[in-house]
Amino acid sequence: MNTTLPESKVGLLDLEVNNLTKILFLFVVVLSSVMVIMKGLDANWYRYLMRFVLLFSYIIPISLRVNLDMAKLFFSWLIGRDKNIPDTVVRSSTIPEELGRISYLLSDKTGTLTKNEMIFKKIHLGSVSFSGEFNDVAMHIESAYSGKLGRHSFSVKLQTAVEAIALCHNVTPIEENGKVDYQAASPDEVALVEWTESIGVRLAFRDLASIELQLNNGNRKRFQILHMFPFTSESKRMGIILKVSLNIYLLLE
């Protein structure tokens, strides 16, 4: 349907008036033809046909169209001033006269009518899981960024998982009036970023070339974006390739 040209939206009353006008015009033509035949056909028969069409043209209610348009404007004005439905704005003059014909009103419940609030509840790493306030996760992250632990310790592994969550998304931080707000196409991605911020890894900056994470210890960690794999219905996931120092990472959401 998107490849076809959209049809002009016309009210049912307008369609009925148009059909009535066509029928009356055909009736006038037939009546004029009958009158010409009764008079007798000659070399000037077409002139008499046009004369009879003009004589019988009053049968076609041309003034009805003007009256209908004036009535539509009047109905729109009344709806806009109705005290029972305040702040109503009529944006089309072809709708008011159709309101009396409505028997059923079907509406689709979409995400635009609701507010989806996603909350990160639980993280599971192999044999260990965390949920609730995530205070233990914040402590592990703080220990990992202190630089005193080995690269194979659990805290460092948890730090890697949290960074993956904080980096693999399409969220962009926007600062307005001193407050940072996250913008994304999906609320679940915003929930992931808000969770990493709550445990000490905040998404501070993002553009087409890089991502920066703000840590609780005051340091910033910058990642270069090498490539983005957008979410598709076939892959059911998105991905990103990042570079930090000499290391290159592929993250999949």
From TrEMBL:
The chain crosses the membrane at residues 20-38, 45-64. It comes from the Eukaryota. It comes from Panagrolaimus davidi. It is found in: Membrane. The keyword Membrane applies. One of its GO terms (molecular function) is ATP hydrolysis activity. This is P-type phospholipid transporter. InterPro entries: ATPase_P-typ_cyto_dom_N, ATPase_P-typ_P_site, ATPase_P-typ_TM_dom_sf, P_typ_ATPase. Its main location: membrane. GO terms for cellular component: endosome; plasma membrane; trans-Golgi network. One of its GO terms (biological process) is phospholipid translocation. PROSITE patterns: ATPASE_E1_E2. Keywords: Membrane, Transmembrane, Transmembrane helix.
